[in-house]
Amino acid sequence: MRIETNLPGFTLETIEAVEQALGSRLPNGLREAWLHDNKFEVGEWFFYPIKDERFFNKTWDDIIRANRDERGLPEDFITVAANGSGDELGFLTSDVETIYIWWHETEELERVADSIDAFVEVVRLESDVIERFCARVLESETVFGLSAETDNGWAYAPSIIEATDVLLFFSTRERALACRAEEWEDYQLIELPLDLFVAGWLPNMADDGLLCGLDWSSDLKGMEYDPETVLEAIEEVN
Predict the structure, then answer these.
(1) Which neighbouring-strand residues pair with 147?
(2) Could you tell me the pLDDT band of residue 152, with boundaries at 50, 70 and 90?
(3) Element (H, E) at 110
(4) In this structure, what DSSP letter does residue 43 have?
(5) What's the chain's average pLDDT?
(6) In sequence order, what are the beta bridge partners of 166?
(7) What is the DSSP string of 133-192?
(8) Has residue 216 got a pLDDT over 70?
(9) Closest-CA residue to 87 (of 67, 106, 68, 70)
């Protein structure tokens, strides 16, 4: 895993000293990253740095400090990153490669990736898709979809990550029409004004616990997003 920052990396000996202080080996991808860089971020996740006295002001909140016992993190869990909302990303000392998110509101662990490298790849893909989607719909002021009727029966698919449904939205007419096949062959193309999508659809979907599928491929595969995440992304680009 290579994530460039403006802070230099460390020798393997320094990384091993951090592992000794934590009482656990670190994931291979994280060890590799720290050989080149320090204090990086991926999507909304800010990875804790290794303390560097040369850059004390930028690295004081280091990974050892982040794992102090009094923080109340789960036993056997080591955090490596935070999202600024109280949630922590990390691994279990019994399996240092599998990555989990500790959700602070429920105090539960959720397995999210087989490795740090896999997690970074997914987050980068999610960011690319949502950024392109937002740029296109802001330019056209239109979100496209497919529906069995003019105002009912919006095209959806079951989520593969949660026990809910994913409503599909597209940034262009062509992308929506590419999915009008098989059981959706007779579906109508719907042009949804962006302001209605933002002010009505996304908040209502959040209340109903539904997810957004953005610019899925014609074989109905793609990324799933919380409506709040899509709303925040549109506001940031705007």
Answers:
(1) 154, 188
(2) low
(3) strand 108-113
(4) T
(5) 90
(6) 157, 211
(7) HHHHHHHHTEEEEEESSSSS-B-EEE-SSSSSEEEEEBSSHHHHHTT--GGGTTPEEEEE
(8) yes
(9) 106
Query: Quick check: pTM over 0.70?
Result: no
Distance CA 30, CA 148 (A): 47
In the chain, pLDDT over 70 holds for what percent of residues? 95
d(CA 19, CA 5): 22
pLDDT tens, position by position, 24-39:
999 999 999 999 999 8
Half-sphere exposure of 54 toward its Cβ, with a 13 Å CA cutoff? 7
Check if the beta carbon of residue 211 is closer than 8 Å to that of residue 226. yes
Q: Do 226 and 206 meet the contact criterion of CB atoms below 8 Å apart?
A: yes
Average pLDDT over residues 129-149: 92
Residue 4 predicted with pLDDT over 70:
no
Copy the structure tokens of residue 156. Answer: 């959806």
Say if CB 227 and CB 206 are below 8 A apart. yes
Q: Given the structure tokens 């709303």, which residue do they identify?
A: 231
Q: What is the pLDDT of residue 22?
A: 95
Rounded to whole angstroms, what are the CA distances from 224 to 123, 165, 171, 176, 216? 12, 10, 15, 16, 9
Which residue(s) pair with 193 in the sheet? 142
What are φ and ψ of residue 124, in 5° steps?
A: -65, -40
Tokens for 132, please give them: 């392109």
What are the residue ranges of helices labelled H in 23-115? 28-34, 56-59, 63-66
